[in-house]
Predict the structure.
Amino acid sequence: MNAVEFERVSKSYAVYETPVGRLMELATFGAAHRHRDFHALTDVTFSVARGEVFCIIGENGSGKSTALQLIAGIFEPTSGKVTVNGRVSALLELGSGFNPEFTGRENVYMNGAILGLSKKELDQRYGSIEAFAEIGDFIDQPVRTYSSGMAVRLAFSVAIHVDPEILVVDEALAVGDAWFRQRCMRRINEMRDRGVTIIFVSHSASDVRAIGDRALWLDHGHARAIGESSTVVAQYLASFAPEESGAGVLSLRKSEPAAVSAVEPVLTIPNIDHRSGEGGATILGVAVLDEFGDPLHLMIPNSRILVRISLRANRDLARPDIGVRLRNHLGLDFASTSAAREGHEPGPLRAGETITADFDLEIPELYPGAFSFSPWVAEGPGSDAIVCDAIDNAITIQMAKGDGPVYGYVQVPCRIEVNPHLTCSSHTELRIV
């Protein structure tokens, strides 16, 4: 038996232009038609297996939150059938279900009671809920005094401590600080390992790749794709790419004057998952080469590689910068560098000029997995830079297995020195310098 099933589900809302129109329709028992229907979901069918992490992605207004509200039982579908098998704990929005006039403590007990827990059970779990939320003395203050981050801390802590069989999480975690988000993601992974069904909505492609077993892509209320999470995310991101970039081969307009670099420019882009930027420059090609200048097909631990990026300025650029991001197989940014960071700013570029930048990288011993290279070009200093062109996952290369296991993400170079045994009398003074 599946945890959740949607069978040809549609959900529409009545939208009124003015409050008067709503009143007129109510007063005439619907005879005076004063609304238009907004179709949030249209004929959507999918199922979520028990113990699965199922992610829903899509742009704002695509129907993601409506789907979660149907799963949580907040709304009934206009047509179709929604079947949910198991206790649902939902974190749908900031402070969802909280009474702003009640204290955090009172809201914990109220929400727990709504979900069917006794006061004795809540007494046993309250300490863990308070400790995970980490909002200090605010636990005894009205929720209306909380910041958005504090509200979501408490809401998430309650949601994970009521022993749900199905955990539903909307995009609320996006407002938390980085440290708390990491703790939440770890807890979600722990719950997944315990067999809890998790339905997760996020705009973060890396989060979906990292935790999702399968994903559903919603587009204006319609199901565009459903399947393995990395495949669906790639399709979703590719939908934003300009049509002309789909072929992966771009033509070069000869630079005028001669290019800054004497090497031959790269004119191919092996893959484009997503392309973004305001268009001030165009990445013409990217290649990853070995120390002999040949295309690299396998990364060897502790070896040197060369990442070559060619670009063309489409307008005058006063302070251009070129960079590359390295991502792991979960889609998480693993490392990044740029010409400006390394002290080699290319200098001003005129419209039509092309340059080629070589990044000579020393690859440490990483865990054996697939790593992708994502090039970008921007203009301006530091955080004020404007992205001109950026390509997600242009090249993906496998990391070879090293001599021993890698625990975590990277094997840190280490020199070990073992000192002889020292004996100290009771009068010996020890100093740490």
Remarks:
- The radius of gyration is 27 Å.
- The CA atoms of residues 288 and 332 lie 19 Å apart.
- The domain at 4-238 is CATH 3.40.50.300 (Rossmann fold).
- The first strand starts at residue 4 and ends at 16.
